[in-house]
Amino acid sequence: MIYADMNNEEQKNLIKSYFDREIEVIKRLNLDDINAAVQAIWAAYKQDATIYIFGNGGSAVTASHFVCDFNKGISEKKEKKFNFVCLNDNYSMMMAIANDISYDDIFRYPLVGKLKSTDLVIGISGSGNSKNVIRAVEYAKEIGAHIIGITGYHGGKLKELADYHMDVMEDDMQISEDIHMVFNHMMYFVLNQE
Questions:
Q1: What is the CA radius of gyration of the chain?
Q2: Cα distance between residue 138 and residue 7, in whole Å
Q3: What's the pLDDT tens digit per position in 21-51?
Q4: Which of the listed residues 65, 77, 99, 166 has the most CB atoms within 10 Å of its CB?
Q5: How far is Cα 79 from Cα 46, in angstroms, rounded to an integer?
Q6: Is the CB of residue 87 less than 8 Å from the CB of residue 136?
Q7: Is residue 9 classed exposed, middle or buried when 0-12, 13-18 and 19+ CB atoms within 10 A define those classes?
């Protein structure tokens, strides 16, 4: 039965079932792993490191939202500012790299010659297997930079490569992406306690 054919009570129950699933996934999150990732971001901030973040599709929007919330929101009342850089915010450069080099290099290429071992890289991939995210993370490992992986499902290759984890262990892209944004807003709250 499709949503439009349901009565009001059935529709509300369907809505409730989505939120109930999301609450259950949140209850299963590994708070030790998440706290370690937050500590890594805070350490990068204290060391004046650049924090590079990137992802595809919905994860691209999440990456961009992180930059706004850290560079403006959290930084607004701090003398020292966060230095987040979103690699998917420059569409013309991404398209040039995809066209002239390879789509798989759209995140790796901007890091070459700029990324330092003291910088932090945050890759977002619901599956954990996006080739362009993995290639950038592999390059970061070669340089010696630390990596936070933000994933869904079972984490994929990104979970294997990352030093820090913000994993949503759920086989559902929408719930994974919802909680990835929750991670951002949770850090906004936590890091504004300073």
A1: 18
A2: 51
A3: 999 999 999 999 999 999 999 999 999 999 9
A4: 166
A5: 12
A6: yes
A7: exposed
